[in-house]
Amino acid sequence: MRGVSEYTATLIVAIITLAAGAVIFIYSYRLIDTYYSALATAAQEAEQSTSIAILATYINSSKLVVIGSTGSRPTTLYAVYINESLAARCNVTLTARDAGAGQLPQQLYTVPSYRAFVIVCSLSSQPSSAKVKLVFNGGEAVAWATRVR
């Protein structure tokens, strides 16, 4: 019985090692490429989306006040919900340097980018706290409002 020469064995081991390395490289490259593509898509969607930050909410006598700001894109406000009910009488105003006012939900109101706004809603009852939800073209923003004295 004759064995395999050390040269042939070394060559076979080198070929198996190179093939295993190529398989691992291709698998890693595909994994990283898929992750990078998903990350780039998410970043692009985030850049194109709109956002609202609710800065403060409070209840004063029979009015609910929401102070907020927009992000890098103009944002269209659709509606205000108070305790999961559509608020019927809400006025939207911008800060003093910006002219503009609107009434939700009768009309949609677009707030320019990087602007503060104030929403004042009339309340029929006088709750001690309320869940406030702003619906806008980029989604929803939710906050809790409590009564101030």
Description:
This protein starts with 5 loop residues before the first helix and ends with a strand. The chain has two domains: 48 residues; 96 residues, Immunoglobulin-like (Sandwich). Helices cover 29% and strands 42% of the residues. Strands 1, 2, 3, 4, 5, 6, 7, 8, 9 and 10 form a ten-stranded mixed sheet that branches. It has one helix and ten strands. By secondary structure, the chain is of the alpha+beta class.
What's the quick description here?
29% of the residues lie in helices and 42% in strands. The protein has one helix and ten strands. Strands 1, 2, 3, 4, 5, 6, 7, 8, 9 and 10 form a ten-stranded mixed beta sheet that branches.
**Low-confidence runs:** none
The helix count comes to: 1
Q: Provide the number of structural domains.
A: 2
Oligomer: single chain
User: What is the CATH C level class of the largest domain, in words?
Assistant: Mainly Beta
Rg computed from alpha carbons, rounded to a whole number of angstroms: 29 Å
Gap from first CA to last CA: 101 Å
Which percent bin holds the helix content? 25-40%
Structural class: alpha+beta
Strand count, sense and barrel status of the largest sheet are:
10 strands, mixed
Overall, the morphology is rod-shaped
Order of helices and strands: HEEEEEEEEEE
Percentage beta strand? 35-45%
- Total number of strands: 10
Provide mean pLDDT, rounded: 84
CATH topology of the largest domain: Immunoglobulin-like
By CATH, the architecture of the largest domain is named Sandwich
